[in-house]
Amino acid sequence: MSWVYENLQICLCFALCCVTNAVIHVSGYEGRGVNIVCPYNLNFEHHEKYLCRNDCKQDEDVLVKSTEGTKGRYSASDNKEKHTFNVAISDLSSKDAGKYWCGVSTFGFDTFPAEVSLKVEKEWCCVKTTRINGIVGSPIMMFCPYPQQHQDKRKFLCKGDHRDNCTDLVTGGSRFTLQDNVSSSSFLVMITKLEEGDAGTYWCGSDSKWSPGNYTKIELTVEWCCAKTNNIQGSVGYPLHFYCPYSPQRHHNRKFLCKGDQRSNCTDVLLSQSRFSLQDDESSSSFLVMITKLEEGDAGTYWCGSDSKWGAGNYTKIELSLDREKLLHSAL
């Protein structure tokens, strides 16, 4: 009996030593998910497994059990063939970082075959985040550096809010081309003709595994271009004339003048204001806008042109300001 007891002590000591040394290190990123894989003894295939935190003595310390499947942000599965208990944690936050235990429900005292140390880091890092601005209808170039040791890896450019579900554009878009420069450990992505829908978040790099530091995040904004921007000043109570050029091939299009901070939601003043009139001059590919008597509310941003589709370069942006000195005299 004494021999059995001594052997039992030796076994318990061995088990505790294993618990202390079997630390599974897992890392994830805030807002993302992480998978924890805990191996267990061959004799525990039909036992319930669970993941717990803290000292695992309270019911609330147990986060999910193998018999539950999914519980909140935790999803558990038991692979009896590989003898692993798997837990997926979604939507990580900094509060999730710390020590966990993989537990096995047994008769008497439960066993804890592995300790899990979870590290939660900030969002995926980039070589840098680049913000660039392009114009509809015009070309643009994106500069993407990569580590020197990745010269032979496939270079990529994809678009999407998150790097893990973005769409590859170099292989699927004829407007997107890539030119590698091995000597400078970088490549250029060229978009031949920007479209309004090209605005968004891009990711480029040289590592298909998306290792941190091996890619660049690009925020691209796209604006509609004007033939030019004119700054005009007028005086309240006085008339004002200004010219709007247009492309010669568009002389048959309806001419327009509208007011608003954005060209996409401006108001047609030729229809709403009787003080505004237009006189076309096809010989000079321009038209004259006449305002008979300026009012204080006329100050602001105007858009004029000859293309109802607002084609890039086919309209002019006008910033109209009022002469403050004359405005003061008129008020008196």
UniProtKB/TrEMBL annotation:
Protein's UniProt name: Immunoglobulin domain-containing protein
Claim: Membrane is one of the keywords in the record: yes
Signal peptide: 1-22
Major site of localization recorded for this protein: membrane
Subcellular location as annotated: Membrane
Coiled coil stretches, renumbered: none
Keywords attached to this entry: Membrane, Signal, Transmembrane
Domain called Immunoglobulin: residue spans: 23-121, 129-223, 229-319
Organism domain of life: Eukaryota
